[in-house]
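Subject: two folds for Thursday's group meeting

Dear M.,

Sorry for the delay on this. The cluster queue was jammed most of the week, so I only got both jobs back this morning. I'm pasting them in the order they finished. Each block is the input sequence followed by the predicted structure tokens. Could you check whether the formatting survives your parser before we put anything on slides? The first protein is the one we discussed after the seminar.
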Amino acid sequence: MSGQAEFLIFGATGQQGGAVARALKAKGKVVRAFVRDPLGERAKALHGEGFELAVGDLFDPASIDRAMLGIAGVFSVQTSSPAGMVTDAEEVQHGKAIADSAVRHGVRHLVYSSGGGAGKGPTRMGHFDSKSEIEAYVRSLPIMTTITRPATFMEMLLLPGMGLPQGMFSFFMHPDQAMQMIALGDLGRMNAQILVAPDRYQGEIIELAGASVTGAGLERAFTKAAGRPIGYRRFPPALLAGNPFLNRLTELLDSGLLAGAADLQALSREFGELTSFEDWLAGPGKPLFEAALREREAEVALR
């Protein structure tokens, strides 16, 4: 790869950072990816795609400083505590370390990827309140900044344990209750557009989503895609009663905080056509959906 990297992407081996890095590359930009293990499969894949790798650790500020050299725009996203890899305090530490390094090295623009549940008051959920703290810190920086708050990823619906392989899918909404979601492809290109036009987006806080989906809508879309009935129900009351984490998320959805606050029409005008859940399921999400259904087939074959 030739040329000096203009953009530094954190979380590049993960979902968000990887989507943003690839969207920037599709625009012809030279991108540096911050990775912890250059020999990991995802890091090697990035290198093979032509990304420059900056090896470091978010617990090591010196490695962050090395990665910042010559960079004009930064995409900052951190691992959250539900992943089980960091505490909420460590997430805040990492977010502030990236911000401080960007200031030290004269970075022109920093985009911080927060979350739909952040910045709207205390939630009593550490991984939302930690993002609110990072948001406030980012807004105080003496450089150009933009905060994006993505809705729930469509890809999360196909994680194990939601009941899809068994034909009865469960999630947070009531059947007639709406929740905004976003495809990772949309998240990537929106953030990439923001990064390449810092003057246009500096100082803004942008709620990101691509579609508003109900539980009944999920049932219809999954049934059509599977070619067989896939039912929908909210997480059972007994499950919520025994799981404080899921129960609190459900409460925040019912309060409206996690339902989504994005203006979909305005986003479509600004960033182009948004990906509906049905289109995502028939396109980028199809391999994930088919793999989830095959889990059920594998279970039956083993009996």
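Second protein, same layout:
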Amino acid sequence: MASQSARRDFALLWTGQSISLFGDQFMVLALPLLAVTVLHTSVAQAALLPFALYLPFLLFGLPAGAFVDRVRRRSMMIGCDLVQTVAFLVIGVLALTGVLTFPLLLGLVLLAGAATVFFQVACTSYPPTLFSDPQELHKHNTQLYLSDSVSKTLGPMAGGPVIAFLGVVGAVLANAVSFAVSVLAVVLIRHREPRPDPTPRARGWLVRDVREGLAFVFANPILEPVILCGMTYTIFLGMVEAILVLYCKDVLGFGPVGIGIVAGAAAFGFPIGNLISVRLVAWQGTARTCVIGTVTSVTGLIAMPLFGGLGSAVGLVVASVVHCIGEGAFGPVSLTLRQTHTPAALLGRVNSVQRFLVWGMLPVGSLLASFSIANWGLEAAMWIGAVGTALCVPVLVRRGIRAGLRRDADRSDLTRV
């Protein structure tokens, strides 16, 4: 069992992360509005801001792990939160004083996105230093995923009233305050990790370290199918997410309210999936939980164009919620598997490989969506994206996961599958 101090330290990490994640969701609405209403940019320019926020996952996703494995992860989290605090504070102050320009805004958003990459790799690598028991580790990973899910569900809903009350610049400054709170929370953590072994940084050390992380993932019979499953799934999910709003508008004829309900209601499935993840692992085991979560999510996604073709808005919403339940159940298990199957000295690099291969596929999915719409139309593109996610199931059910499905004795053991 974990000590009381470990639980206290995790509570601080979880609280700070929850507040900053919630504040970050304001930016989904605030940044494009800031660009259009304050800087008077075009809509096309404003659309570059989300791209700038996620581009660092492709640029720095792999190197981030090599750096994280060479420093104390708590220190890395504090530094990254400070960078994000300053970035959004500068955006707000410059906007208030009337000297903010769009290139400067784009650069500061890129900086904040880069800090997000390093923070997330460090944050997902930190809990194993607090908890050695796999079941307790999984329970606390589920809390982190639950915070992310709830913030994605409630954050955009709260963003509108916050912007209405504080204005777009005030919302940006509120996000800076949320990161400052996260800095304070992590600073108050008492646990101190041992300093990583001071491996000399010989010429080419970064490339060598990145290669070690990639080699470990592709050689591991558990992590390789889980991460490649996520990669395959995300390519086609990216298609569905890029198409959904236009599909609802142009194919189904929904108005803004209907589109908002379809897009917003889906997120309620994530916390449900997170909450059942722990019980599902205890009941069915790790490998089976991964497969159940994957199949559930794929089933929901395929049902979306099916119900859309029938003109059923209720069916479309239910299918979307089902897909998020499956994804919410799979996520915490995949994180715990990375933490329990990876040596501490490699964990940052393994988490960065996952971020690069999975999150980096979202822009690929958007490109495929654009190509499919241009050649076959919106409805066909929606079907391609939804059915394409099913390819992740055979990618998952291989090697160590397939062997884990055959064993029953390890149902509650997250150290093995």
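Two things I noticed about the second structure. DSSP finds 17 helices and no strands in the chain. Residues 87 and 111 are 7 Å apart (CA to CA).

Cheers,
T.
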